[in-house]
Design brief:
Order of helices and strands: HEHEHEHEHEHHEHEHHHEEHEHEHEHEH
Distance between the termini: 43 Å
CATH architecture of the largest domain: 3-Layer(aba) Sandwich
Strand order of the largest sheet: 8-9-7-10-6-11-12-13
Oligomer: single chain
CATH superfamily of the largest domain: P-loop containing nucleotide triphosphate hydrolases
Strand content: 15-25%
Number of helices: 16
Number of strands: 13
CATH class of the largest domain: Alpha Beta
Shape: elongated
Bound molecules: adenosine-5'-triphosphate, magnesium ion
Largest sheet: 8 strands, mixed
CATH topology of the largest domain: Rossmann fold
Structural class: alpha/beta
């Protein structure tokens, strides 16, 4: 189906928009990466004693677990053999970084060392079992992981919220949000949810050639219904790892929702995805302000018009200081569009606006706010993703400013 066909369909068809979402691919309950036969046998006995279903056991240690979790869905619990690892705690950190929210990690290994035990606990494992591993020890470790209400540090980890907001309309906020979400999902193999908060005229689904998800409005007006079952029914899926929540509510009715509702929604999404990328309308409203308030990263998109610069300053002042917990990243898009009439970067610097990224105006490359291909835009998106994820790019590029 092409974009034009899609444009016609929801508005012209009186029947309800059919559901587009396939069910979310499920998670394995338990996965183990073990290096020796004895541990594997103990694990098999433990699993049949506890009658845990949906279990996968692989031969290999933490290296293999890291490789696996870098591309595949995380199981609910991972048992990982750290024997022979030279830097087990740092590898556990690496593993934790890759895990989806809510994963419990149990380590097994051959070193009986209290220092190591402490380091592993600090890195977030819920238990460390010294070999020889027995079915009983494993059963204890697994039952304590399922029974502790607060969980281990790794399992308490939540997905990051990135809120993209434009200083003005039409500066490319939606294009940036879509491309950032796509990049994190397809180039960094993260599970990403793109949340289009413009329930009436949002473009995210259209740009990705997906049908909007009618349940979003319903959930935001009735937030007690927001749970994993709702998500499974409502999200639209693009490829394997990019999920989209958007709506196309009628223009003649209000589509308002409360700050509490959207916070509840984001709270649930953070337990399911590595990243939630919200395309936030720039119109003032308590719900939109709340999303910007609770975001880990706020990406302000602006162009170099006087109006845009003025509103960027106002947005920045409204956000307060950028810090480790809540970072602001300024992207100047469509640079060069205004020619000599545009404000220069030097002039912007005089009002303390120093964009982290500047993307040139490339009218021939864009017709709609969809996925960009091989342009300065994609390069900037890659760098922005690196900044947000902490996975640094190798090269310094020309459009990089600040820092
Ligand atoms: N660097 C660029 N060069 C040329 N065109 C661009 C660039 N970035 C985005 N565009 C185009 O600008 C238009 C507006 O983009 P987009 O819809 O992402 O902006 P927006 O800020 O989300 O707008 P709105 O205020 O309507 O939500 C789109 O057609 C998009 O393809
Ligand atoms: Mg937009």
């Amino acid at each position: 189906m092409n974009a034009v066909q899609l444009l016609k369909s929801p508005l012209q068809t009186p029947a309800p928009i059919e559901k587009t979402a396939k069910p979310l691919p499920g998670r394995v309950r338990l996965m183990a990466f073990v290096l020796d036969g004895q541990s594997e046998a103990a694990l098999n006995t433990c699993i049949s004693n506890l009658s845990v279903s949906s279990v996968t056991i692989r031969r290999g240690g933490i290296d293999k677990a890291i490789k696996y979790l870098g591309v595949e869905r995380s199981p609910e619990t991972v048992i990982v053999d750290i024997s022979g690892s030279e830097m087990p705690a740092s590898q556990v950190h690496q593993l934790a970084e890759l895990c989806e929210p809510g994963v419990t990690v149990v380590a097994i290994g051959d070193r009986n060392d209290i220092g190591l035990y402490r380091d592993l606990k600090q890195a977030g494992v819920s238990e460390y079992i010294v070999k020889p591993v027995t079915a009983l020890l494993l059963a204890k470790a697994l039952s304590s992981t399922y029974n502790t209400a607060e969980g281990s540090p790794i399992s308490r980890k939540l997905g990051k919220l990135v809120a993209a907001v434009g200083a003005r309309g039409g500066v490319g906020t939606t294009t940036l949000a879509i491309n950032l979400a796509w990049y994190l999902a397809n180039r960094q193999n993260r599970r990403v949810l793109l949340l289009d908060l413009d329930l009436q005229t949002g473009d995210c689904a259209l740009a990705l050639n997906l049908k909007p998800t009618p349940g979003l409005r319903e959930a935001l007006t009735n937030p007690v219904r927001i749970d994993n079952v709702f998500l499974e029914r409502t999200v639209a899926i693009h490829g394997e790892r990019l999920f989209v929540l958007s709506a196309e509510e009628p223009l003649h009715a209000d589509a308002e929702f409360t700050a509490e509702a959207v916070e509840t929604l984001v709270g649930v999404l953070r337990t399911q995805f590595h990243y939630v990328i919200a395309d936030v309308p720039r119109i003032p409203g308590a719900a939109f302000r709340r999303v910007l308030d609770i975001a880990d990263n706020r990406v302000i998109v602006a162009d170099q018009t006087l109006r845009s610069v003025r509103d960027t300053v106002r947005l920045r002042d409204a956000f307060g200081e950028s810090g480790e917990a809540r970072r602001h990243l300024l992207v100047v898009n469509r640079s060069g569009e205004g020619g000599r009439l545009a404000m220069t970067l030097d002039e912007m610097a005089k009002v303390q606006l120093r964009p982290e990224f500047v993307i040139p105006f490339q009218p021939k490359r864009f017709t709609t706010p969809g996925l960009a291909h091989n342009t300065a835009f994609t390069e900037a998106v890659a760098a922005l993703a690196a900044e947000i994820s902490g996975r640094m790019l190798q090269k310094n590029r020309w459009w990089r400013f600040g820092k």
